[in-house]
Amino acid sequence: MKILYTPMPGLVHRVQIVARELGLYDAITWERAQPYERPAHLTDQNPLSKVPTLITDDGLALFPGMVIYEYLESLAGPKLYPSDPAARWPAMQVLSLGEGLWDMTVQWNNERKRPPAEQSPEQRERYLAAIHRVIDHLEALAPSWHDFHIGHIAVAGCFNFFDYRRGRDLATNEFGSVMPDFSDGRSNLMRWLADVRQRPSFAPTD
């Protein structure tokens, strides 16, 4: 099987963390794809031109990330998705929050990439407000997190990108603005994140 994705030097993607946690990383061919360029090898498999996209050995294309995570777990056996309903549904809630946080971040980042005259300050503020609401909600949940699960990968993966993008912004001023420091005032999340990042699966790969 192979996964089409966009490598970023120094950043480990959520799907890569999942593959490592499940012991499947080396069984996957990792193929570069730039979704905004709409390359044929991506759009022929995923007409949405989004990454990650997984191609099974039978040629079936699976996306988005949440579907890929479940498929990989189906191959490796249960590990990241709790089987006990009392634990599973809270984990799925955190997964949904993490994936939604990523979606809002992408929308915010894309808006600020536009030429200044074409940007919508209202849209940027709407996305940013949603990002802060989600992070505040996660900050309240973090003290209750103990066993590592799929939702935690989604959340930590977002913060990996926050740090990566903020570092790039401060170094290059590429888009004329800087990714906010979302760690400010979120001590519960930051303590939890520091521990999670010690896992080998979080080491950068590209």
Provide tags for this entry:
alpha+beta; single chain; 206 residues; 52% helix
Largest sheet at a glance? Answer: 4 strands, mixed
Run of helices and strands: EHEHEEHHHHH
Radius of gyration: 17 Å
Structural class, by secondary structure, is alpha+beta
Poorly predicted spans:
none
On the 0 to 100 scale, the average pLDDT is 96
Terminal CA distance reads 19 Å
Strand order of the largest sheet: 2-1-3-4
> What is the global morphology?
globular
Q: Strand fraction band?
A: 5-15%
DSSP summary, beta strand count: 4
Number of contiguous helices: 7
Helix fraction bin: 40-55%
Would you kindly provide a written description of the structure presented here, covering whatever features stand out?
By secondary structure, the protein is an alpha+beta fold. Helices cover 52% and strands 6% of the residues. It has a four-stranded mixed β-sheet with strand order 2-1-3-4. Strand 1, helix 1 and strand 2 form a beta-alpha-beta unit. Helix 1 packs parallel to helix 3 and helix 4 packs antiparallel against helix 5. The longest helix is centred in the middle third of the chain and has 29 residues.
